[in-house]
Specification:
Shape: elongated
Structural class: alpha/beta
Bound molecules: adenosine-5'-triphosphate, magnesium ion
Strand content: 15-25%
Radius of gyration: 31 Å
CATH topology of the largest domain: Rossmann fold
Distance between the termini: 33 Å
CATH superfamily of the largest domain: HUPs
Helix content: 25-40%
Number of strands: 25
CATH class of the largest domain: Alpha Beta
Length: about 575
């Protein structure tokens, strides 16, 4: 439990749950579920829903099921099922043995469809799903009743059973609920319950030729599992009367109906400068605008993990965003704030130079090296210290030197003294340039009395810069990321444009870096703070011959003030 959780007041779903617990509505039991459709990888919006559902179960001594809503065989794959499992576990949640699939309930859903047909509440329509959609009307104009609406129960039963036997081609018939074509709620205008699909399902194979619509499967799946609080995003509020209609007409027992599942809607998470629609994410992946679902620029959980985010930071983020009833857009900087907070406590500090300028310390003996002591994490004494090798030739960051600096420039400039972090004071004596006038090298001198960066005589040195010893440095590939999209709302595109036109062409920049030898032991997903540059995470593309870092996030603390990054 973190600070925000200790101090914040209850959100509306917690209030409802506490009242239900008091009144004994569900005999004191709380059962939630997280219901992903396995048609893509999970994203940060799903993380919010996961933290909410599993979090409520933890808080109120309840349970949370994982249920795959796998009603559409054409878009669902086991690759997605596996990734979803992995991501939820990584976030720190456990569904124990309660892993369910809507497809487990296909048999029961079919029986209930037969029951509704027998009650005269469902009928087979010879139109396609598209034709049905067209005849639904508009919110202000009632829909048109289908000429097949008044088929007899016998005929409907016969046709539905034959639909399932595979006697009719795809798209030639649907099963519809018989409700009200003039209802002000469009979802109540005889919605489709089943469509014909001669398709192989990732779990049921060829067993079914008909598949239930999400709206026909979802509420009943909750009911079958005995979910007490079915939490979903706001757009499903208007579907709730339909879910209730199905259950009202399927379950006759008033006792069961008293404590049956209730649905509560909350505002989905929206983040600026990214997209969260699976359709859009799939397009980015399939058309190679990014390098896969786990590209560190993606808002997917796997992308964030590869970028260097921790489960703790994402849970903290979900908690800070809170649970609201009204749509809003959260600023990406809040997510970045959460990872900085977490990594500040945990990340080992190292010195890395990514835009090098060579410095020769002329009065440091040639061939000499020494080991200087450096603090691994000033926020955590237990992490101890390490040795950083120092020698006559070092790299510093190119923009830590200016030949002709403005006032208040405290970094290196001719005649100005700076502290090399953990090492010595140095002074610049000479600037070496090539034929184009570009600076290629600096000649400096050091004060041997200032070892450890400590002033020998009380004289003050304002700037402290980082460095690496050239002969000891490890060359690394560093991937610097920027926002994936240029617009706050990428979906807002110009005439004849799509969200693709809003992609940021410079969202990935690959540079070379030089880092301390201690990084040679780093493993994929290890996290570091490169002092003054930001937090970086070892990419799984690293192998014995190559060390690759992803920049998780830049730094913004007092150190960063003296850096231009
Ligand atoms: P699509 O992009 O096709 O609308 P989806 O994001 O709704 O898909 P699901 O797999 O159906 O994908 O989502 C699983 C659960 O996660 C649902 O309960 C849904 O309400 C929740 N969820 C999805 N997106 C968000 C979001 N941005 N914020 C909060 N919860 C979300
Ligand atoms: Mg959905």
């Amino acid at each position: 439990m973190n600070n925000t959780e200790e101090t914040r007041s209850l959100h509306f779903i917690e209030e409802i749950i506490e009242e239900d617990l008091k009144s004994g509505k569900h005999s004191g039991k709380i059962l939630t579920r997280f219901p992903p459709e396995p048609n893509g990888y999970l994203h940060i919006g799903h993380a919010k829903s996961i933290c909410l559902n599993f979090g409520l179960a933890q808080k109120y001594n309840g349970r949370c099921n994982l249920r795959f809503d796998d009603t559409n065989p054409l878009t669902e794959e086991t690759e997605y099922v596996d990734s979803i499992r992995k991501d939820i576990q990584w976030l720190g949640f456990d569904w124990e043995d309660r892993e369910f699939y809507a497809s487990d309930y296909f048999g029961q859903l079919y029986e209930w469809a037969i029951l509704l047909i027998k009650k005269g509440l469902a009928y087979v329509d010879d139109h396609s799903a598209e034709e049905v959609a067209e005849s639904r009307g508009t919110p202000t104009r009632p829909g048109k009743e289908s000429p097949f609406r008044n088929r007899s129960v016998e005929e409907n039963l016969d046709l539905f059973i034959r639909m399932n036997k595979g006697e009719f081609p795809d798209g030639t018939k649907v099963l519809r609920a018989k409700i009200d074509m003039a209802s002000p709620n469009m979802h109540m205008r005889d919605p489709v319950m089943y469509r014909i699909k001669h398709a192989v399902h990732h779990r049921t194979g060829n067993k079914w030729c008909i598949y239930p619509m999400y709206d026909y499967a979802h509420g009943q799946s909750d009911f079958i599992e005995g979910i007490t609080h079915s939490i979903c995003t706001l757009e499903f509020e208007v579907h709730r009367p339909l879910y209730d209609w199905f259950l009202d007409n399927i379950i006759d027992d008033p006792l069961v109906n008293f404590s049956r599942t209730r649905q509560y809607e909350f505002a989905r998470l929206n983040l600026n400068y990214t997209v969260m629609s699976k359709r859009m994410l799939l397009k980015l992946v399939k058309e190679n605008y990014v390098n896969g679902w786990d590209d560190p620029r993606m808002p997917t959980i796997s992308g964030l993990r590869r970028r260097g985010y921790t489960p703790e930071s994402i849970r903290d983020f979900a908690d800070r965003v809170g649970v609201a009833k009204r749509e809003n857009v959260i600023d990406m900087s809040l997510l970045e704030f959460c990872i900085r907070e977490d990594l500040n406590k945990k990340a080992q500090r190292i010195l890395t130079v990514i835009n090098p300028l060579k410095v020769i310390i002329e009065n440091y003996p040639e061939g000499q090296t020494e080991e200087l002591e450096a603090v691994n994490n000033p926020e955590d004494e237990i992490m101890g210290t390490r040795h950083v090798p120092f020698s006559r030739t070092i790299y510093i960051e190119r923009d830590d030197f200016m030949e002709d600096p403005p006032k208040k420039y405290f970094r290196l400039s001719p005649g100005n003294e700076v502290r090399l972090r953990y090492a010595y004071f140095i002074k610049c004596n000479k600037v070496i340039k090539n034929a184009n006038g570009d600076i290629t090298e600096l000649r400096c001198s050091y004060d041997p009395q200032s070892k450890g960066g400590k002033s020998p005589d009380g004289r003050k040195v304002k700037g402290t810069i980082h460095w690496v010893s050239v002969q000891h440095a490890i060359e690394t590939e560093i991937r610097l990321y920027d926002r994936l999209f240029l617009k706050e709302d990428p979906a807002e595109a110009g005439v004849n444009q799509t969200f693709i036109d809003n992609l940021n062409p410079d969202s990935l920049q690959i540079v070379k870096g030089y880092t301390e030898p201690c990084a040679s032991e780093a493993r994929p997903f290890d996290k570091f703070q490169f002092e003054r540059l930001g937090y970086f995470c070892v990419d799984p593309d690293s192998d014995s011959g190559k060390l690759v870092f992803n920049r998780t996030v830049t730094l913004r603390d007092s150190w960063a003030k003296i850096s231009s990054r």
